[in-house]
Amino acid sequence: KILIIGACGQIGTELTQKLRQLYGTENVIASDIRKLNIDVVNSGPFEVVNALDFNQIEHLVEVHQIDEVYLMAALLSATAEKNPAFAWDLNMNSLFHVLNLAKAGKIKKIFWPSSIAVFGPTTPKENTPQYTVMEPSTVYGISKQAGERWCEYYHNVFGVDVRSIRYPGLISWSSPPGGGTTDYAVDIYHKALADQKYECFLSSETKMPMMYMDDAIAATIKIMQAPVEEIKIRSSYNLAAMSFTPTEIAAEIKKHIPEFTITYEPDFRQKIADSWPASIDDSSAREDWNWNHEFDLATMTVDMLEHLK
Ligand code: VAH
Q: How far apart are the C-alpha atoms of 231 and 288, rounded to whole Å?
């Protein structure tokens, strides 16, 4: 059986639904710190769990006979800058709890999300390689880089089967914009439909790697279903689909909502965005486990506006 910790979050919400379709609702236990998403809570087995409480997680694993854990609970970049100590605690200790359960043989496989936030201002900005300089300058990025190091260590030293993806900015219609710096690209669709205008908290030419949630979920399931010999990287795989600027996504939206206008008022999140790459080289994921994305900016925009209107 599968346990998703952080099932009510931006990725968790859709991941829960897809895993339930794939493996059967009763075989996918959703859990979160509170009943934050009523659809997730009502669509199958749900448990309230604190990702920082080892005993609570161990109890769920035993009671539900869990084989695989998807640990999706974390503070994202902007929120983490406002709560550094809690962000480090949540992002790191929740990972140790799950890694230690696997080390003890209580679970067989782990998925843990990393992020392009592991790269920093000294990382090559275009076509950022799988292996390169990584000096993250955000609390969130530091926690993700440290987490990658521990995932690789637990695999090499204790044989833990933990698999990880460095997600770019993710965009979906099923969750409201959250504490992510890339979440302007979610909010812009909501505001375009509601107000026909959007005040962007990043500057117009801020280019960042992005991906539609459908592709991110497909990649997550693909890496977890891949035969163990295909997983050659046990820190975390670069993953990419597209890169765009606020100017470019606004122009794409204008094709559907001609009266849409955008203004720019960069805030503290500009510094976070400027520390990240503009585009990512994900050839390792494409070579090792046959990753391929489907959505681009045009097709994502059609799907987002279709679901949100
Ligand atoms: C954030 N959406 O903005 C997340 C992600 C690469 C960005 O880690 O914090």
A: 7
- What is the rounded distance in angstroms from the CA atom of residue 224 to the CA atom of residue 241? 19
- Ligand 1 pocket, 75 CB below 6 A? no
pLDDT at position 88: 98
Whole-angstrom distance, CA of residue 152 vs CA of residue 133: 17
Query: Catalytic residues, which ones?
Result: 140
State the Cα–Cα distance between residues 36 and 24, nearest whole angstrom: 22
Given the structure tokens 């976070």, which residue do they identify? 272
Q: Does 116 contact ligand 1 (Cβ within 6 A)? A: yes
State if residue 238 touches ligand 1 by the CB under 6 angstroms criterion. no
Helix, strand counts (H, E) of the chain: 12, 12
Alpha-helical (H) ranges within 213-296 are: 213-225, 246-254, 269-274, 283-289
The overall average pLDDT reported for the chain is 97
What number is the average pLDDT over the span 226-251?
A: 98
Pocket test for ligand 1, best of 167, 175, 208 (most atoms within 8 A of CB): 167
Q: What is the DSSP letter of 9?
A: S
Pairing state between β 242-244 and 169-171: unpaired
From the list 113, 97, 116, the residue with the least C-alpha distance to 154 is 97
Q: How far apart are CA 259 and CA 141, in angstroms?
A: 37
ipTM confidence: 0.95
Q: Decide if 293 contacts 240 (C-beta within 8 A).
A: yes
User: How long, in residues, is the chain?
Assistant: 309
**Residue 208 Cα: closest atom of ligand 1:** 6
